[in-house]
Amino acid sequence: MRILIIKGQSQYGGTRLFCDCAAEAFRRARHEVEVLDAADFAPIGAFILAHARSAGQFDLIFTINILSDFKDALGRTLSDLYGGPHVLWQTDYILSRFQVLPGIPRSTALLVVDPTQADAVRSIYGANRFDYLDFFPHPAVGDLTQDEADVSAFLRGRPIEILWSGGYQAPELPWAGAEGVGRQIFDAALELALSVEWIPPHEALDQVLASYGLDLHDPAHRQLREAAYLIDMEVRRRRRFDFLEALSRTGLPVRICGAGWDGQHSRFENAVFDGPVEMTRMVELMTQSRVVLNTNGNFGAGSHERPFSASLAGAATFSDFSRYYADVFCSGEDIELFYWQDLDAGIAALHALVADPERAFDQARRAKAKTLAHHTWDSGIDHIIAAADHVRSAGAARR
């Protein structure tokens, strides 16, 4: 196959690294791959048109978060210009893309990082809104590291006891300026979402809207239902804040990477702060870490790349519960999962894991074996190809 991967700008280089990893995996599978870097070109549309005129046809176009609703002045999509199906992977909460979702062509294969986000799209936009809509979990990124011979080598080669990656964010209601029933609805949806271990944001908001007698099938309420992304935003912010507050009280030694930590250093007595770093640097730091922390925050059935990348790097992972992690890992054996409804017990489990490097070493080895077997880009590209094949067949059937 001839495959085009278009990469754009990316905070900390995350999606750009994903694109490069996907390209390498496709090439290892003997596909012809061109990576088009559109990050420095504006307007991007003119750049795409110029490239399409000279590049010829492709069997598959893959993008991450960008060019989702692209159309030129004649209404031509990426698939029209390049000839092959467009596979779009959205790594952000899907309803946060509400402004572009209506304009994404039906023939685009849409991949999301939590299966309940696909449910949200079907519920709000219709079951047949896309020819292909599916869960695509994050594959690991990073180079394969050599296994340590024993726990002594694990300790010697990994001076970072705990690694945390993420910016500092305090809770801040995004609907703080609303009044009346609107404020009541969003307050109630947030309260519901935080009262349970996890509920998909669109379901929390829909339950509250239904309690007010709104017909969820009425298209007039679509915009209100799309605003579930605000619930997602605040739940993630509050849970991350709660986790960091609990972590700060432990006194555990932690290496923190991320923006916004100025003025917060005194709360972490045994922390080292790196500031924001590129994802390539994070991957390097994972190879020097014993335990990597992860909070999905509000992707309770889905994924983040961090647990798989940490496993590939040979580190143990401590994460909040996700149904997906519970399916692909065994909690307590190759990953340590905690619950938001019992954060104190989770922090105690983190203490125990850090205090027992032999267990961390064993967990890391088991997780690495599972990641190499099932959660690399080499296995992930099969899903991308299958998505393209599906929409190609669907388009042929309509013709």
Would you write up a description of this structure?
The chain has helices spanning 14-28, 44-55, 78-82, 115-125, 151-157, 180-195, 201-211, 222-226, 228-250, 279-286, 305-312, 323-328, 343-355, 357-374, 377-398; strands at 2-7, 32-37, 60-64, 86-90, 109-112, 132-135, 160-165, 254-257, 271-275, 289-294, 316-320, 336-338. With 399 residues, the protein is α/β, with parallel strands linked by helices. The chain folds into 3 domains: 2-139 and 378-398, Rossmann fold (3-Layer(aba) Sandwich), CATH 3.40.50; 151-170 and 234-375, Rossmann fold, CATH 3.40.50; 181-227, no CATH class. Helix 6 (180-195) crosses helix 7, helix 6 (180-195) packs across helix 9 (228-250) and helix 7 (201-211) crosses helix 9.
Write the layout of secondary structure elements.
Layout (H helix, E strand, L loop, with lengths): L1 E6 L6 H15 L3 E6 L6 H12 L4 E5 L13 H5 L3 E5 L18 E4 L2 H11 L6 E4 L15 H7 L2 E6 L14 H16 L5 H11 L10 H5 L1 H23 L3 E4 L13 E5 L3 H8 L2 E6 L10 H8 L3 E5 L2 H6 L7 E3 L4 H13 L1 H18 L2 H22 L1
Parallel strand pairs: 1-2, 1-3, 3-4, 4-5, 5-6, 7-8, 7-10, 8-9, 10-11, 11-12
Helix pairs in contact: 1-15, 6-7, 6-9, 7-9, 9-13, 11-14
